[in-house]
Specification:
Layout: H1 6-12, H2 19-36, E1 44-49, E2 55-61, E3 66-71, H3 79-91, E4 96-101, E5 107-108, E6 113-117
Parallel strand pairs: 3-4, 4-6
Antiparallel strand pairs: 1-2, 2-3, 5-6
Length: 122
C-alpha cells in the first residue's frame, strides 16, 4: 500500500523501512502524479504479483499497453529481478519493463527491458 502523502506514510510506519521500500515509495510518489493528473491519458497505476513470487510494484497501464517499473538498488538486476520481469512480460505481451536504480548507468537489456537511472524517470 502506498500513500500519496509520504510524510503520513513515514509517520504510520511502525517498523523500520528497508532501503528498497523507501526507494519504491520515492518512485511511486514521483511517478504517480505524472499520470494521475492527466486523465486524458487513461492510465491506471497498480502492481503485478504472482503466487510464484514475481513482483513488479509499479505498473502503469493504458488501454493497450503496460509499463512495469521495478526499483532496484544496484545498477545490474539480480536473477530474481530478471525472473520477475520475464513473468510480467509473458503476461503482458505489449508491455515493457524498466529497472530503475539510484545510480547513473543506462543500458538496454533487450527490446522490451531497459535499465535506467531513476533520475531519467522524474
Amino acid at each position: 500500500m502506498y500513500f500519496e502523502d509520504q510524510g503520513e506514510a513515514s509517520h504510520l510506519q511502525s517498523r523500520p523501512i528497508s532501503a528498497w521500500h523507501d526507494f519504491t515509495r520515492f518512485l511511486y510518489a514521483n511517478l504517480r502524479h505524472q499520470w494521475h493528473y492527466r486523465p486524458a491519458l487513461q492510465t491506471r497505476l497498480h502492481e503485478y504479483r504472482t503466487r510464484g513470487g514475481a513482483h513488479i510494484p509499479l505498473v502503469i497501464r493504458t488501454p493497450s499497453q503496460a509499463l512495469g517499473v521495478l526499483p532496484i538498488l544496484e545498477e545490474n538486476p539480480t536473477a530474481q529481478a530478471i525472473a520477475a520481469a520475464t513473468s510480467f512480460l509473458k503476461k503482458n505481451p505489449n508491455g515493457k519493463l524498466l529497472f530503475a536504480h539510484p545510480g547513473k548507468k543506462d543500458w538496454v537489456m533487450s527490446r522490451k527491458i531497459r535499465v535506467v537511472p531513476a533520475s531519467a524517470l522524474l
